[in-house]
Amino acid sequence: MNRHCGTSQPILMDEKILQKAVVEQTPQDQAGSIAKADGIHFNKVLKIRLEYRDILKIDHLWDFTSLARLDLNNNLIERIEGLDRLINLTWLNLSFNRIEKIEGLASQRKLELLNLSNNRISVIENMDTLEKLTHFSIANNLLGQLDNVHYLRKFKNLFTLNLFGNPVSKEDDYKFFIAAFLPNLMCLDYRLLNEKTKNEASIKYQYVLEEMGHEELQIQQAEDAEQSQKAELQLHTDAFVEFLNGSYLFKSMFKDDPEAETLHCVTGVAHLLQTFEHQMVELCMQLFEIGLAEHKRRETEVNSFFSGQTKAVKGYQQKSSQILANFEQQHKERVVELQQLSKPDVLKVKISHCNDEINQLCNSLMSLEFQLVSQLEDIIKKLDISISDMVANFSETVQGIFAHYRDLEDNYHQNMQGIAIATLEKVARDNLEEDMSDDVRMLFTDKDTVMDALATGHDNHLLKISDRETQLVTRVNAWKVALIKGIQDKELKQNRTRISDIHRYLDHLREQLEELQ
Fold first, then answer.
1. Vertex 59 angle, CA 72 and 157, to 5°
2. Whether residues 128 and 270 fall in one domain
3. How far lies 416's CA from each of 408, 425, 453, in Å?
4. Is residue 8 situated within a structural domain?
5. How many domains does the chain have?
6. Which ranges in 158-263 belong to alpha helices (H)?
7. Are residues 203 and 262 in the same domain?
C-alpha cells in the first residue's frame, strides 16, 4: 500500500530538520524576510516539503502559524497530530504513510486539499470542520462500507474525490452510488462525472435520496434551532439578564424545599402562589427588556468609540506618512550630495546638518505621537464616563426592581403566615372543612414547626433574590472595568510599538550617515 516495508530507520521531526528544509526550499526573494540575524522565522514560512524522510511523528510545527502548504507524504507517520496551530493550512498531503484513523484536523478550517491516499484508513470521520474542502483523495486505503461516503455530503464545496483502490470502489454500483449521493462532485477517481451518469444515478436512487434529504433537512433545522438558542442565550448573558425572561428566578426560590411543597397543599395557597409567580414574572420580564435595551445602548457607545479611535489613528498615519515622504525625498538628495563630497571638514559639517534634520524628524514624529495619545486619552475618558453612567443607572434600576422582588416576597410571606395561623386553629379545633393529606395534617399539629418552615422558606427566597442581584450588578461593573482596562492596555502597547518603530527608523538613518564618514 505504500513504499515502506519496515526496513527504513525512522527519524523524529525536530527543529534542525525543519530549519534545513526551510533554508533549502525558500526562494531567494523570500529568504531575507524569513532568515533574520537572530535565526529563522518559522512564522513567515508559507510552505514546506518534508516527504521521503522516514519521519515517524508530526512534531515541532507550532511556530509555522502562516503555513499554507504542508507535504508529509512518503514517510512513516502513524497518527495525524501536531497540527493544531497551523490554522492557515489550505493544502495537506499525508499520502503514503501508516495512518489508520482520520483525526487531529479540528483546527484546519481553511483546508481545501487533503490527500490521505495509500494509508490504512477504514472509516471517513472527524472532518466536520473542513468546510472549505474541495479536493479529497483517500485512494488505496481500507474503506469497506459504501454508506460511509454519506459522511461527505456535508462538504458542499467538494468537487474532486479519489476513492480508487479501496474495497468500496470494487462494488458493482460504486460509480452511480457516489454520483447520486454527492451531486456536486465533478471528478471521481481522476475522471469527470458526466451529466448522463449523474442523471441515471439520481433516478436510480430517487426514493432513497428523497428520504435522506428529508432527514438531513430535519437535522439541519434542529442544528439551526440549537445555534439560534445558543446565540440568543449569549445575547442575554452579554446583557447580564440571562434566565430573567420567565419564571426561572421564581422557581429557583422554591427549588429543593420539601416543606414548602407540603405547605402549598393547604387551601388558598395555590392561588396565592399563582399570583406571586405572575407578579414576579412580570417584574422579571420588565428587567429583562431593560437589560437588552441597555446592552444595545452600551454596544452602540462602544462601537462609536472604536469608530472614533480608528479615525484618529488613520489621521495620524496619514500625517506621519506625509512627514516621512517629505523627509525621505530630501534625505535621499542629501545622501547623494554627501557621497560626492571628498573634503572631510565639509563632509563633517554636512553630516551634522543631516543629523539635525533627523532630530527634527524625530521631534515632528514624537509630537504627532503625543497628539494622537492625547486625542485617544480624551475619547477613552469620554467612553469611561459614558459607560460608567450607563452602568450606574442600570445598576440603580436593577436594585430598584430587586427591591420590588423583596416586597413581593414579604407580602407572600405575610399572607402565608395568615393562612398558616388560620389552618393551625382549624386543626386544633378539628374544624377542617376540606380534606387534608396526612403529611399536611401532621405538619399543622405543631405551630413552631409550621412557623419555622415558613421563616426558613422566607429567608431562602430572599437569599436567592439577593444572590441574583449581586451577581448581575457585580458582573456588569466587572465588565465595565475590564472594557476600559483592556482598551487602555492595548493602546499603551500600540503606543510603545509606534515609538519603538520611530526610534528604530531613526537609528537606521543615523547608521546610514555613519557609514559615509
1. 50
2. no
3. 12, 14, 11
4. no
5. 2
6. 174-181, 195-204, 206-238, 248-253, 258-263
7. no
Encode 450-500 in three state secondary structure. HHHHHHHHHHHHHHHHHHHHHHHHHHHHHHHHHHHHHHHHHHHHHHHHHHH
Three-state SS sequence of 47-110? EEECCCCCECCCCCCCCCCCCCEEECCCCCCCCCCCCCCCCCCCEEECCCCCCCCCCCCCCCCC
140 & 207 share domain: yes
Whether 299 and 446 share a structural domain: yes
**Last residue of one domain, picked from the residues 196, 218, 240:** 218
Amino acid 42 reads: F
Residue 422 lies in a domain: yes
Pseudo-torsion of CA 350, 355, 356, 361, nearest 10°? 130
- Give the domain CATH number at 91: 3.80.10.10
Buried b (16+ CB within 10 A) or exposed e, 377-413: eebbeebbebbeebbeebbeebeebbeebeebbeebb
Domain match, 130 and 41 both: yes
229 within a domain of the structure (yes/no): no
Q: CA–CA separation, 70 vs 25, rounded Å?
A: 12
DSSP one-letter code for 10: -
Three-state secondary structure along 37-58?
Answer: CCEECHHHCCEEECCCCCECCC
Please, are residues 209 and 181 in contact by the beta-carbon 8 Å criterion? yes
Both 258 and 199 in one domain: the answer is no
Q: pLDDT tens for the chain, 517 residues: list them.
A: 444 444 567 888 888 889 889 888 876 545 444 454 345 788 889 999 999 999 999 999 999 999 999 999 999 999 999 999 999 999 999 999 999 999 999 999 999 999 999 999 999 999 999 999 999 999 999 998 888 988 998 899 999 999 999 999 988 788 898 888 888 899 999 899 888 888 888 888 888 888 888 888 888 899 889 999 999 999 999 999 999 999 999 999 988 776 677 777 777 888 898 999 999 999 999 999 999 999 999 999 999 999 999 999 999 999 999 999 999 888 888 888 888 877 788 888 888 898 899 999 999 999 999 999 999 999 999 999 999 999 999 999 999 999 999 999 999 999 988 988 887 887 777 766 566 666 666 667 778 888 888 898 899 999 999 999 999 999 999 999 999 999 999 999 999 999 999 999 999 888 888 877 6
Cell of 438: 396526612
Residue 239 lies inside a defined structural domain of this protein: no
Q: Residue 391: name the closest of 487, 478, 465 by CA.
A: 478
Range of the domain at 195: 15-218
Best CA proximity match to 95, nearest among 147, 138, 31, 39: 138
Cβ atoms of residues 44 and 68 within 8 Å: no
Tally of CA atoms within 13 A in the half-sphere of 484 that contains its CB: 19
Q: Are residues 269 and 138 in the same domain?
A: no
Q: Are residues 417 and 375 in the same domain?
A: yes
Domain closes at, from 201, 218, 235: 218
